[in-house]
Structures are given as C-alpha cells and as structure tokens.
Design goal:
The mean pLDDT is 88. The strands form 3 sheets. Strands 1-2-4-3 form a 4-stranded antiparallel beta sheet. It has one domain (4-164): Homing endonucleases (Endonuclease I-creI), CATH 3.10.28. It has 6 helices and 8 strands, in the order αβαβαββααββββα. The protein has helices at residues 4-17, 27-32, 52-61, 85-95, 103-118, 145-162; strands at residues 18-25, 39-48, 64-66, 79-84, 122-124, 127-129, 135-137, 140-142.
Length: 187
C-alpha cells in the first residue's frame, strides 16, 4: 500500500507535468490487415528535467523510464515515465482521489479499462479448421460497432480535453473567487 501523502504528491506532479490519455492503435488495420477494429490503450506519463519524481512513479507503479530528447536544441536532458494498459489504469485509479486538474481525463482512462474488462459484446461462430483439418465451430467474442463507438468516444473526449488552447484551463474559466477543493487528510 502506498502512503496517501506520496499519492497526493504524485497526483500533483501528474496534474502539473503529466498526461492521462488513450492511444488509438490502427497498425493491425492498416499494415497487417488482420484486425477489424482499432485497439485502444490506456496510457499515462510524464517528462521532467529532474529524475526524482520519475523514479518515485516507477517505484510505486512500475511502468517504464525513458530519456527523451529535449524539444529545443538548448534544452536540458529529460527523464520520462510511462505506464500503459492495465498498469496505467492501476496507477490512474490510485492517483484519482488526489487529482484536480486532470481528473476528467483520468476518469475516461478508467472507463476504458472498465469496457475492456467487460470484453467484447458480440459473438462469432465461424467454422474453422483445427490442426487436423477438421472443421469445428469456434464460439468467440468479437468487438461490435457499439463497442468500438464507446471506446472511440472516450478517445475523442480525452483528446479534446488534452488539446492545447481550447479554453479548458481552470484559470481561463474563473468566474468568481477561488474556492479550494477539500483534500482528504490523514489523521
């Protein structure tokens, strides 16, 4: 069990410098041509110039560390951390109670995980040859158009929330005095 103070700290780090997203993978559709629908993956990550928070995220949740190139020629070396799919969803679930700015993106990531746990809703009973050549009926679950639409809607929502300059930044939406959100404290 991770200390709630550490989780609150890491949530603040992710709120400021991290991202929560959904990756839409069409490789099997475009290149291999062995899929009917795109794949969707939960992902979260962060890039920073100091390694302390990156190593703490890795120690708490697993995932992978990278050393991406700086975005400018004179930029400092960067440290990156990323967690995908189940590992990413587990980290998101642990950080969610402490997130403020990127809470909606994190909720979408967890909704995708819930859809993946439910699995495809369609059934396929295509006759296929077994290893001896005899045709047998395979009863398999397949993705339906409705399944794909739900995942695509989550992907589109996260993409619009993460879009730069869309006016969704909390500072640009202030209409009154700032009221802090109560944070659960440990007794």
């Amino acid at each position: 069990m991770i200390d709630p103070i550490i989780l609150a700290y890491l949530a603040g780090v992710m709120d400021s410098d991290g991202y929560f997203g959904i990756k839409r993978d069409t490789y099997h559709l475009r290149v291999r041509k062995d899929a009917r629908v795109p794949l969707f993956h939960e992902r979260l990550g962060i890039k920073q110039v100091s390694s302390e928070a990156i190593l703490l995220l890795k120690n708490c949740f697993g995932g992978s560390i990278s050393h991406p190139k700086p975005s400018s020629d004179n930029g400092k070396p960067l440290y990156g951390w990323a967690a995908l799919d189940k590992k990413g969803a587990e980290a998101t679930e642990a950080l969610l109670p402490y997130l403020r700015i990127k809470r909606r993106q994190a909720e979408c990531v967890l909704k995708l995980r819930a859809l993946k746990i439910l699995g495809p809703s369609g059934r396929d009973t295509t006759p296929m040859p077994n290893r001896w050549g005899k045709l047998i009926v395979m009863n398999r679950r397949i993705m339906t158009g409705e399944d794909t639409e739900k995942r695509q809607a989550l992907y589109d929502e996260v993409r619009s929330l993460n879009k730069i300059g869309n006016g969704s930044h909390p500072i640009s939406n202030l209409t009154g005095p700032y009221t802090p959100i109560p944070v659960q404290t440990r007794l």
